[in-house]
Amino acid sequence: MLSHKTDKFDFTVLASWKAEELKDYVKITAPENDISIYFLDLACPQAQNLGELATAAWKQIHPDFNLELSLESSIPATDNWDQIVQLIYNTPTSELRTVMAIVRTFNNRAYLCLLEGTTVGLSRRGAEFNIMYESWKPGIKIGATLSLLKNGSLKLEANLRKTTRKTWCSWIPPLIVL
């Protein structure tokens, strides 16, 4: 495992995956090139619709993005996040792929993880995605900083990782293994 740190992001990238720093986001690609993960940090006014924000983020990655939203799930915000939302987009069944976004908000910022990949790729590398997603945090020390900013007391950053792991496992889309 390798640590990948930028001005905006700090996360673990598994050695076999490729990480690219692009203009406004980081792209991580699976060794087989069948899964791409994008990390973005965007302004998010409190009244912002997170589905619209995620679609705008996808359009930043793929200007011709036009998938319809299939499922939007609000997850109880934990560890001082303001909101956590998972969005799954409708893809043609024949493509056997998943396109989704995970949006976490704090202090008028949205921290997005966008994922697109084949069903087979996600079945094979879903645990690796989970490791990288869990390790991702904005350039700030999110667990401690969120707690300090919200209520003046420090909590362990590991608490955020533990909760994120539980949350992720409870709403990962079912994958079909052929």
List the helices and strands and how they pair.
Blueprint: E1 2-5, E2 9-13, E3 18-21, E4 26-29, E5 35-43, H1 50-61, E6 69-75, E7 83-89, E8 97-106, E9 109-118, H2 119-135, E10 137-138, H3 142-151, H4 157-171
Antiparallel strand pairs: 1-2, 2-10, 3-4, 4-5, 5-9, 6-7, 7-8, 8-9
3D architecture notes:
- With 178 residues, the protein is of the alpha+beta class.
- The protein has a single domain (2-171), classed as Protein Transport Mog1p, Chain A (3-Layer(aba) Sandwich).
- It has helices at residues 50-61, 119-135, 142-151, 157-171, and strands spanning 2-5, 9-13, 18-21, 26-29, 35-43, 69-75, 83-89, 97-106, 109-118, 137-138.
- The strands form two sheets. The protein has a seven-stranded antiparallel β-sheet, sandwiched between helices. Strands 1-2-10 form a three-stranded antiparallel β-sheet.
- Residues 141-178 have low confidence and may be disordered.
Q: Enumerate the strands of the largest sheet in spatial order, edge to edge or round the barrel.
A: 3-4-5-9-8-7-6
How confident overall, as mean pLDDT? Answer: 77
Order of helices and strands: EEEEEHEEEEHEHH
Task: Give the domain tally.
Answer: 1
Name of the top-level CATH class: Alpha Beta
